[in-house]
Amino acid sequence: MVRRLVDTLAGDTLLCKRYGAVPTADAEPAVRAIEAEAFDAAVVGGGAAASVEEGIEALQLYSKDVSRRLLDFVKSRSAAAKAEPS
């Protein structure tokens, strides 16, 4: 999962075209933190899934949280880059 997310931030993706690519050296620690935080939030928020449906719901929440956090990360990097004096 982490490898794919790093590739998303550092590769030739729509996200990179819009907000700029993130160097792998910067993307990897950020992605590890994002993934861990989203996982912890899904586990705490969803607890142990008692059914397949609850497991699917927890996975959907985790996926949405990862996506939101990634988008927040690239937006903040982009804004910081634009704010830096040339």
UniProtKB/TrEMBL annotation:
A Gene Ontology BP annotation from the UniProt entry: lateral root development
Keyword field: Cytoplasm, Nucleus
The keyword Cytoplasm belongs to this UniProt entry's keyword annotation: yes
Cellular localisation: Cytoplasm; Nucleus
A Pfam family reported for this protein in Swiss-Prot or TrEMBL: WPP
Domain WPP: residue ranges: 1-83
InterPro entries: WPP1/2/3, WPP_dom, WPP_sf
Gene Ontology, cellular component aspect: cytoplasm; nucleus
Domain of life: Eukaryota
Main location: cytoplasm
Protein name: WPP domain-containing protein
Lineage of producing organism: Eukaryota, Viridiplantae, Streptophyta, Embryophyta, Tracheophyta
